[in-house]
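Lab notebook, bench 4. Still working through the backlog of constructs that have no structural model yet. Next entry is a single chain of 204 residues. Request: give me the structure tokens for it.
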Amino acid sequence: MQREESVTWSSTVRTPLVDQMLHPRMRPGGIPTWIGVGGSPDSVVCAAKYGLPLMLAIVGGRPQRFAGHAQLYHRALAQFEQPVLPVGQHSLGLIADTDSEAVETWWEYWQPVVAKLAAERGFSKPDRCCYLAEIEGGALFVGSPDTVARKIATVAHELRFDRFDLKYDIMNLPREARARSIGLFGREVAPRVRERLTKAPSHV
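Model written out:
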């Protein structure tokens, strides 16, 4: 439906739509759409089947463990005779002027949210050691612009990702911290990532 000019649809809550023209008109090529996947191989294959870019939601553990999903996606694209399409990573994090500022700010607001989820879903409550380990080698992108840029570039190179999305907001995080993170991401992190990815692998 996202690449068509009209839609036919029915349900139990309204009158059916039969060849209803879309307004505003569909843009050429359809609406840009990515399939978000949290780890299911079936969803990876589904994204390839429908010819849609893949966005891997990596919110815990080493991002490198998703390498097999990216490889599966590219094999499935070839099997379905689809063109080569991009793969992205979506992760949590915060950028501040210094590593210590980012680490302390994110911990203050991230820890209560994850502790609540742990109680609801039955997994271990987050502690400070696990938190720091997630920053060092896991899925949290927390730190100064240089620290975060270095980590993004390393993961992008190792997993051959084409795009990185940072989920910088979390419950009750102050507006000032969110705005600062956005500004640093655009002005300092993104250019450094691009610069690192143009260098030899040993310099990433």
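Notes after review: The radius of gyration is 20 Å. The chain is about 45% helix and 15% strand. Flag for follow-up if needed.
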